[in-house]
Amino acid sequence: MDNFTHFDKNGNAVMVDVGGKEISRREAVAKGIISLNKNTLAAIKSGGSKKGDVLGAARIAGIMAAKKTAELIPLCHTLVFDSCAIDFNILENSETDEQRIESTCAVKLSGKTGAEMEALTGVSVSLLTIYDMCKALERGMVISNIRLEEKSGGKSGLWPPTSGFQCAPR
Is 132 one of the annotated active-site residues of the chain? Predict the structure, then answer.
């Protein structure tokens, strides 16, 4: 248990005390994928979903979720962002029926902790929103490969250590 920061010496779950930490610039980028068929992607691109602008709603939902990470993940600290952006990259394969949309969430803040969980939460909820808005068209969509791409700031510094850290989008 010594390597886990959210447990005390008795194995009880605790919120990490960040009171003694210095405020630093923290940035994180997370990405994830939703795979879907050509017809669903065409409806998203044309605005033909009965629920409206799928990617616009997913962008707002992801940003809202990132801001509420401390309410969703029990031991996360409440943070104030300098910025949070979600962008989508449509990855089309003309040879197969499966297409993908990649969501990217970038969070920037000045604080004693944070940014990674917030970026991961933003990506997850943006993809779940796409699924929700399109499930009437296709129930077989698959959300996958949600991951931290890069982060900077704090005691651990740059991750991965070899990245040139480009906190994108916007």
Answer: yes
Q: Which of 17, 53, 97, 132 is catalytic?
A: 132
Note the pTM of the prediction, 2 decimals: 0.86
The tokens of 81 are what? 């962002």
H or E segment to which residue 38 belongs: helix 38-46
Q: Which CATH number characterizes residue 61's domain?
A: 3.30.70.640
Can you name the residues that pair with 31 across neighbouring β-strands?
Answer: 104, 147
Is the per-residue pLDDT at 87 higher than 60? yes
Neighbouring CB atoms inside 10 A of 51's CB total 12
What is the domain range of residue 113? 24-152
What pLDDT does residue 49 have?
67
Q: Is the dihedral of CA 98, 147, 105, 127 positive or negative?
A: positive
pLDDT band at 170 (very low <50, low <70, confident <90, very high): very low
Q: Is residue 163 part of a domain?
A: no
